[in-house]
Structures are given as structure tokens and as C-alpha cells.
Design a protein that fits this description.
5-stranded antiparallel β-sheet
Amino acid sequence: MATNKNAQLRYQILDRCFSNFQKRYEIDDLLDEVNEHLLDIFGTTVSTRQIREDIKYMRDRVSFNAPIVAYPYDGKKCYYRYSDRNFSIYNNELSVADLNKLQSTIDMLTRFRGITSNVWLEEVISNLEYRFGLKANAEHLVSFEQNEQLKGIEHLADIIDATINHQTQEIVYLTFRGKEIQMTIHPYYVKQYNGRWFLYGLNDERNEISNLALDRIQSYKMSEIPFKKNEQIDFSTYFDDVMGATIPSEDVAKETIGLQFSANRYPYVVSKPIHKSQKVVDESNCVVEIEVRPTRELDQQLFSFIPDVEVLYPEWYRQRIMEKIEENLKKYLSMQKDRTDDSYLCTR
């Protein structure tokens, strides 16, 4: 029997069925399982006769010598399974449990199919589906937070490629003040935070690491300037003491920040720490500590918890948050005074 791709996929699927001691596969079940994958990947199907021929071939000593046994049950019915729980025609292949985990991973990855910046995923998913005889779940069971309207997302694949392949880039970048500047960047690292993507690399003009938001990159092209290898930063620990994507100036020291939460919000914060350094210091009073270098992203994160959080210490940071709250409150109070027209009021 020719061991073409179609046949190899059938053997993989049958091998997985015979190795699964949690389910009984009758001949019709085996046929359905095989055809489902063949139809999805190759657009073809086989007959029951072909499945029986495959079982015969796998049992043959010259081929796989597989200990496939037909176990009778419920009268005339029988199911097929390996008599040896440890047997597999692919001894180095994944176990059924591993394949189930891989199936879940593929289901999650397929959520990103069809997005321009994720074209590379199509090849990865297709290879996994063929290699292990798996197919994505047609149902939409898992959802990811994703902003498909985000500007600059179309640059992501090329920027990642340039980072991996050490390709210096000439980038035209739009600052927050609306000024376009051109810079030479040696790309080192790509990071996502709060729905946005950021590129970190050595800026030739400044001779320092720059942080570029992809949605502000206007254009880019490969530079003739030789790539300068990253010998300054270990990005695996670079963000350990900050919240978000911004690294503050060197004069901003790491602080131990005490936060007291309301009783209702406290369990949420404990189950989902706001930073990896978070620890509980007073459970009865709902107080936690984090050790970070304060940044604007940290301020934003804490404001998302208002009115359920209070900064206890250090005093200077408590004062900073308090001033921001007071400034915001003045805007609301000022607006309330200006709204004297009855049209702003709701009447019953």
C-alpha cells in the first residue's frame, strides 16, 4: 500500500483512536473520524473497506505490527483498540492527552485567522493540522480581546520579521505632537500592552533605546546600515519593575507602593494581581504591596479601580494620585455649575 500523504494521515488518526482508552471506536466511528479530517484537509473521503484494509496493513508485521484487537460488546458490536496501552506506531509522537492540549491550542490560534498581519499563522496552523491529524473546532468557543481597527497592525508581521532577522530599519515616525521624524532603528524587541504594539530598538541618531508605538509608524524600509547587535538589555527582565510598556528615566527609583482595596474589589485583585511583585500584607484590611517604578501606565491602572482603591504609601505617590483626583473633580464641579439650563435636568 502506497504510503502517500493521504495514507499517512489515515494511520495517524487511526493510531490515535486505537490509543484512546476513554472511548470505544466501532468501524463506523473510525470511518467518520478519518473522513472528517480527510475532507477538511484533502477534500476527499474513503470507504469502510479502506479502513479495514488500513487496519490489516497496520497489523502486518512487515509494516507496523500493531496489536489492534476487535473487542466484542453489546451483542454483535465490537470496538477496536490496542491491547497494549503503551503502543503507538509513532513512538515519538504526542500522547492522546498531549494531542488534546494541542487541539485546544489550534482552536485558540484559529481565532486570529484571516487577519492581514497574521498571515503567517495560516501556514503554522495548516502544518499542525496535517502533521498531527487535527482540525480546528468550527464553533467559536474562545474569544480574545482584540482591536481590529488599531492603526499600524498591518506593520506587525514585517516588524517582527525584521526583529528576528536583525534587519536595520529606516522608519518615519509621527510623534504625539504631530511631527514626522526619520530615524534609523536596530529592532530588538516587540511587545504588546493594553491592545497596542510597541517596537524597542537602538536609535542610531540618539544612541539609545527607543520605544515606538506601531500605530505611529508612518513608513519603514530596510536600511543599508549594518545591524548592531543588542548587547545592552536583557528583555526577559527589562519590564520586571514597571507597569506597561514605558521605561521611566533612570532617576525614577523602584518604590514599595501600598494599596488598600474595598472588600468587594479585594478578591478580584488577589485572584488577578496588578503586577508580578504583588503580595498581600494585611488581609483583614485588604492591603497589598507592589514594587515598581511609578509610570503613567501605573497611574492609569490604579484609576481604573477608583473608587475601590486608596494609595497608602509612599506619601509622595499618594499625594500625586490625590492631586490628579482633585484636578478631575474640579472639572466635574465646574461643569455642574455651568449647567444651569433646565434642559440638562431629568424630570419625572
